[in-house]
TrEMBL record:
Belongs to the ACC deaminase/D-cysteine desulfhydrase family. It holds the Pfam family PALP. Gene3D superfamilies: 3.40.50.1100. It comes from Alteromonas aquimaris. This is Pyridoxal-phosphate dependent enzyme. The keyword Plastid does not apply. Its cofactor is pyridoxal 5'-phosphate. InterPro entries: ACCD_DCysDesulf, TrpB-like_PALP, TrpB-like_PALP_sf. The keyword Transit peptide does not apply.
Length: 297
């Protein structure tokens, strides 16, 4: 059984950032949905897990050694008694990451594949092989970006009791952004904060997930700090201060970059006075263990 808390709280956020008083900032605390399957993870996996097609009794998915997606899915499958196979990029058998240790403790099957094989994860021929190996399995793509994920993500907007002018969120695969865009009206804008180097590529990914073109969204590419999981000591300090001053826990891979981007944009008068800005806290705090590992290595 999963003890999910929905709707997630939406809190007024009043930082002491320059010009923050000129706008109204809110945080959708999806990080509080569940201690493990937090943030966009539950939103994306909800329908995949609650509507397993008849005869399907296993899930298979893909990710790296620190993947928040595999971590959340592995936990959910253990709780729901669904066998789960994680196809992991790289061989961590000699020293599993903390995230992989959790998956092993939750009785997930880990299949380590090299980068070359991992690169084939979306090709029809490779997926056919996986289907032959696991005939009763639902195959969930990397990052949980199956079409039902978009429906789950869109429910964030259904829970709001006001209409934000801008919605800001971190972008990795683009599925969370793609789930929000169709739910906005013409006066609302979604702004994705790219957490990795992916100019044009990320826009194309988001467009490929949308069923029709929309114009009320964009992705900001100035805040990835050099690439996925790359971060400055300043960002780490920023996350710590955010927690000390506001009790909001973030990590430097996704949500730290989101809040930092919001601060920079507000300080640069990017939004009109009086704008209502909603930050989506997409959870993923287990990813902070990567930072700790990197820093102790
Ligand atoms: C905590 C967290 N926030 C944001 C994202 C980005 O979401 P998406 O991959 O849907 O763009 C991810 C990755 O899935 C994540 O783990």
């Amino acid at each position: 059984m999963l003890d999910i808390t929905l709707p997630s709280p939406c809190e007024r956020f009043t930082p002491d950032w320059k010009y923050a008083d000129d706008v109204d900032i809110y945080v959708k605390r999806d990080d509080l949905i569940h201690p493990v399957i937090s943030g966009n993870k539950w939103r994306k996996l909800k329908y995949a897990l609650s509507e397993l097609p008849d005869g399907m009794s296993r899930t298979v998915s893909f990710g790296g050694g620190y993947s928040n997606h595999l971590h959340a899915l592995g936990y959910a499958c253990q709780q729901l008694a669904i066998p789960f196979t994680a196809i992991v990029r790289g061989d961590y058998s000699a020293s599993p990451t903390p995230m992989l240790m959790d998956l092993l403790a939750w009785n997930c099957e880990l299949v380590y594949v090299n980068k070359l094989e991992y690169r084939q994860r979306e090709t029809p021929a490779y997926l056919k092989q996986i289907r032959m190996r696991y005939p009763n399995a639902v195959i969930i793509p990397e990052g949980g970006k199956q079409p039902s994920a978009l429906k789950g993500v869109g429910e964030i907007i259904d829970e709001l009791t006001f209409q934000p002018d801008y919605i800001l969120l971190p972008v990795g695969s683009g599925a969370t952004l793609a789930g929000l865009i169709p739910k906005l009206n013409a006066a609302q804008h979604a702004i994705g904060i790219a957490v990795l180097k992916g100019e044009n590529y990320l826009e194309t990914e988001v467009e490929s997930l949308l069923t029709k073109p929309h114009t009320n969204w964009r992705i900001e590419h100035k805040f990835h700090q050099g690439g996925y999981a790359k971060h400055s000591p300043e960002l780490v300090q920023f996350c710590q201060a955010l927690f000390q001053n506001h009790g909001i826990a973030t990590e430097p891979v996704y949500t730290g970059k989101l809040f930092y981007a919001a601060k920079t944009l507000i300080e640069n008068c990017y939004f009109q006075k009086g704008a209502k800005i909603l930050l989506i806290h997409t959870g993923g705090l287990q990813g902070a263990r990567k930072i700790k590992t990197d820093e102790t290595n």
